[in-house]
């Protein structure tokens, strides 16, 4: 007698289960194809035009993955449920982060199948590898999708249109996110619905085809359905980074940016062997560092260093002057104000850059 499957929505029909196992194995293979295609593109560095990114093969490999996801969603799981359970399944999709990804990918699949428009991939990250390049494609942000895709909404006259739920889910959890991570999210969601659908490597309890092979590693990349996505991992990196004092023996503040009325302090971390690395930091983080025993000094126009202090209210001072009014010199050579500003914006956007500038060894002491 076949063992009763377990999970959030176990597939009890044997024919649907067989189809589900086939499609889940296919989805795992298609994910590896997308991964490998991204590492073997014809991307080149052109003397006249800079980096010419090729993502066509990646886009071609995505289509069968989207089709498998849609089949698993409808034919394998939803259509095999009772009316009450089908409503419960849809409610889970709308609330669950991975379920929302499945809903959002419907928009990409419908555009690929039904519409005369191409969903170009967005590639703003490329890693060099030997003589070639590896691209890291993400889905286009919703506002940048072709108008025909955004206008394709389900209605009485357009039964093949995409539901509002899928439009919203794409906008919230798919657009702007790495393609591979969204495919891994979909795989993980279906495995949570029914773990028996996923194929195991022969003689083991490990998932077949995972983890994905390691190519050029830059900071963090998700290579297994059970691993956290880059966004969640980055949030944890930022939390730990901010909770651990910076590396080095201290920091010298030599410049102040004012952004929307908020002061951001810029300068250099004094590293071992006389090395120095740049930093940009807001006042609350400097206060946390100082309360953990880490020293900061302010560099005056005449080059004199004044110890930075913080009162009980978190107000920073140097040489008896509030740090927000301290007379820092105006940079006249690199790094210039626009460079400091770019580094600060990168710090806000990229947890891994923030970690690198606070911890020269690349990781906080407790991470």
Low-confidence stretches: 1-5, 363-367
**Count of extended strands:** 11
For the termini, the CA-CA separation is 48 Å
Query: Can you give the mean pLDDT?
Result: 90
Structure description:
By secondary structure, this protein is α+β, with helices and mostly antiparallel strands. It is 42% helix and 15% strand. It contains eleven helices and eleven strands. The strands form three sheets. It has a seven-stranded mixed β-sheet, sandwiched between helices. Strands 1-2 form a two-stranded antiparallel ribbon. It has a two-stranded antiparallel sheet with strand order 3-4. Residues 1-5 and 363-367 have low confidence and may be disordered.
Topology diagram in text:
Layout: H1 14-38, E1 44-46, E2 50-52, H2 56-77, H3 83-95, H4 97-114, E3 126-129, E4 132-135, H5 147-151, H6 164-174, H7 179-193, H8 230-243, E5 250-259, E6 262-270, E7 276-282, H9 283-291, E8 296-299, E9 305-310, E10 316-318, E11 321-322, H10 337-349, H11 351-358
Parallel strand pairs: 5-8
Antiparallel strand pairs: 1-2, 3-4, 5-6, 6-7, 8-9, 9-10, 10-11
Helix pairs in contact: 1-2, 1-7, 2-4, 2-7, 3-4, 4-6, 4-7, 8-11, 10-11
Which terms would index this structure?
single chain, two-stranded antiparallel sheet, disordered N terminus, disordered C terminus
Gist of the model:
With 367 residues, the chain is α+β, with helices and mostly antiparallel strands.
